[in-house]
Amino acid sequence: MPAQPILIAGQWKPARATGVFQAENPALGQKLPDEYPISDWADCNDALTAAVEAAAQLQATAPEKIATFLTRFAERIEKRATELVEMANQESGLAKAPRLAEVELPRTAGQLRQAAAAALEGSWAQPTIDTKLNIRSMLAPLGPVWVFGPNNFPFAFNSVAGGDFAAAIATGNPVIAKANTSHPGTTRLLAEEAFAAVKETGLPLATVQMIYRTSHADGEKLVADPRTAVIAYTGSRHAGLKLKAAADAAGKPFYAELSSVNPVVILPGALAERGAKLAEEFSGSCLMGSGQFCTNPGLIIVQASAAAEQFIADVKQRFEAANPAPLLSSGVAKSLHAGVQTLQAAGAELLTGGQPKPAPGYRYANTLLRTTGENFLKAPEKLQTEAFGNASLMVVARDTKEIEKVLMHLEGNLTGCIYSDTQGSDDPLYNELAPALRGRVGRLLNDKMPTGVAVSPAMNHGGPFPATSHPGFTAVGIPASLKRFGALQCYDNVRAARLPLALRDKNPTGKLWRLIDGRWTLADVGA
Predict the structure, then answer these.
(1) Sign of torsion, CA 319 322 327 333?
(2) Which terminus of the chain has fewer CB atoms gathered within 10 Å of its CB, N or C?
(3) CA-CA distance, 469 to 13, in Å (whole number)?
(4) Are 501 and 508 in contact (CB under 8 A)?
(5) Partner residues linked to 140 by β-bridges
(6) How far is CA 385 from CA 3, 52, 298, 335, 390, in A?
(7) Does the pTM exceed 0.85?
(8) Do 113 and 70 touch, CB atoms closer than 8 A?
(9) Which of 294, 386, 402, 404 is catalytic?
(10) Where are the beta strands (DSSP E) in 285-388?
C-alpha cells in the first residue's frame, strides 16, 4: 500500500520521503493500516517556494474572498462530519459523542466562521491615522505561516483547521500545515476539504499546503528559513524549545504553547463551606478526557487543616473510583509516567495511581500526589513538572505566608484560579494572594476550574513563559489571536491613491473601526 500523498503547490502528490509511519488506535494499542510519509527537505523547500508566491497573490486578494473561503471550509467540514469524527475517534481514542461530534467539531466550524467575520470586518488590523502629520499605519499580512498542531485536539487545534490556521488565513497569510503524527488521517481529511474550498473560492492554490512529518533537523531548518514569516506551535515543551531556538536565531516570530500546570488555590473558607463539592468539581476537571487538556489543573494548593485533609481524602476516593479513559498515544503514556516519577523523585508522596493500566490500549491509573509547601519551596522547578494526563499534585502549605511563597516560585502558566467562600471571610486572603498569582498566569479565574476555553473575543489562551513563548498574545479569541500574524506597516506622507483602502480618508465599508486622531470611529476622515 503506497503512503498517503501530501498537499504541495496545489497538488496532492507522493512525498519525497525518508520513511513512513502509522498512526495508532490508542484505545486498542494497535497501529492503523494507512502509512504516511516522513517528508525530506525537498518537500519543505517546495512548500515554502509555493507559499511565497501565494503570499504575494493573497496581498491583492479582497477580504471578502478570504472570508468566503473560511465560511465555505466550515460548511464542508460539517458536511463531512461523520467521516471526520470516525477517523478522529480511531486516531485519538476520544469519544465520538459528545466530545468530538457535539463539542469539538462545532467549535472548529464556529472558529472558522468567527475568523471569516473578522477578515470581512477588518478592525483586527487596527488602522490608525494621524491627520496632522499625515502618518497612517495598520497591520498587514506577514507571509508564509507554518502551523504545528497538538495531539489533544484533532479538530479545534488542528494544523489545517484549528484556531491558528483560521487566524493566519483570516489575516491574509498562506499556511503550511505540519500534521500531528497522532492524527494524520484526520488532518488529511480536513486538508482535502480545505483545498476543495480553496479551489471553489478562487484563492491561490498554495494558500493551504500540508505535510505529515519531517526529521527534527528539517523541522529546525524550515522554521529558520528566510521564506518562513512566522510559526505557530502547540505541543511539548522539549520539542518546542528546540524549534524556538532555531526560529529565534533567525529572527522569526515563534508563537508557542508549551506547558502549564494551571495552579488552583483553595482558601480555607471555601474548603470549610463546600469542600465535598469542590472535590467533585476538581476531580471531574482533572480526569475529564484523562486530563489531556493544556488547562488541566495539575497543581492544587491548600492550607493545612482538617478540612484540607478531608478534601484530599475525598479526591483520592474519586480518583480511585473513576475509570481512566484512553491516553492519546503510547508517547503520552510514557511521558505521563516519566512526569509522575519526576515528581516522586523530588519528594512528592504518591497517594494513588502512579502506574500504567493493563491492555487494551494506553491507559494510566488516575494519579494523585501530595507534598508540603516546605518541600515545594526546596524543589519548585521539579515539583512543577507537567505530568500531562490524569494526574495532579496537592501542595499543603502551613499558612497563608507559605502559600504566597509557593505562588512566587511558580513558572508562567496559562491559567490560575483562586476559590474563596461566598460569605467574604476569605476576602482578605484573596486580596493578599491574588497579586502574586496574577502576574504568573494569562487567565485568572475565581471559583471555576480552568479546563474550558471559551471561544470569546475576551479570552486569553496564553500566558508568561513557559506556558507560551510570548505573554502578549493569545491562541484563542478573535480578533486578538489574528494580530500574531500581522506586520505593522506605516505610511508617511504617502499619496492617497497609493494607500491601502483601510487607510484612505473614506471608510471602505462603513463598518471598519479606525483610530483617527486618537479617537476610535466608524466615520470618514474629516467627518
Answers:
(1) positive
(2) N
(3) 34
(4) yes
(5) 487
(6) 37, 40, 9, 11, 14
(7) yes
(8) yes
(9) 294
(10) 299-303, 349-352, 367-372
Q: Which three cell numbers stand for residue 238?
A: 522539549
pLDDT in tens, 182-205: 999 999 999 999 999 999 999 999
Instruction: For residues 85 and 104, give the distance between their C-alpha atoms in angstroms, rounded to a whole number.
Output: 10
Place of cell 500574531: 484
Q: What is the DSSP string of 388-447?
A: -SSEEEEEEESSHHHHHHHHHT---EEEEEEE--TTSTTHHHHHHHHHHHHTTEEEEEES
Q: What angle do CA 301, 302, 303 make, to 5 degrees?
A: 135
State pLDDT tens for residues 314-353.
999 999 999 999 999 999 999 999 999 999 999 999 999 9
- Beta-bridge partners for 162: none
For 410-485, strand residue ranges (E) read: 413-419, 441-446
Q: Is residue 280 among the annotated active site residues?
A: no
Amino acid 402 reads E
CA atoms of 414 and 412, how far apart (whole Å): 7
Task: Dig out the grid coordinates for 197 from the structure.
Answer: 474550498
For residue 445, the tally of other CB atoms under 10 A from its CB is 17
Q: Does residue 286 have an active-site annotation?
A: no
**Distance separating alpha carbons of residues 387 and 393, to the nearest angstrom:** 9
Rounded CA gap, 51 and 53, in Å? 5
Share of the chain above pLDDT 70, in %: 100
User: In whole angstroms, what is the distance from residue 314 CA to residue 336 CA?
Assistant: 23
Question: Within 10 A of 116 (CB to CB), how many other CB atoms are there?
Answer: 25
Q: Which amino acid is at 128?
A: T
Walk across the sheet containing 6-8 and list its strands.
Answer: 11-13, 6-8, 208-211, 175-178, 145-148, 230-234, 254-257
Q: Pick the catalytic residue: 257, 273, 402, 411?
A: 257
CA nearest neighbour of 294 among 467, 100, 167, 95: 467
Beta-bridged to residue 301, according to DSSP, are 265, 395
CA neighbor of 161 nearest in space, from 122, 115, 117, 101: 115
Strands 135-141, 128-130: parallel, antiparallel or unpaired by DSSP?
Answer: antiparallel
Please compute, for residue 230, the number of CA atoms within 13 A of its CA located in the half-sphere on the CB side.
Answer: 26
HSE-up of residue 398 (Cα within 13 Å, Cβ side): 7
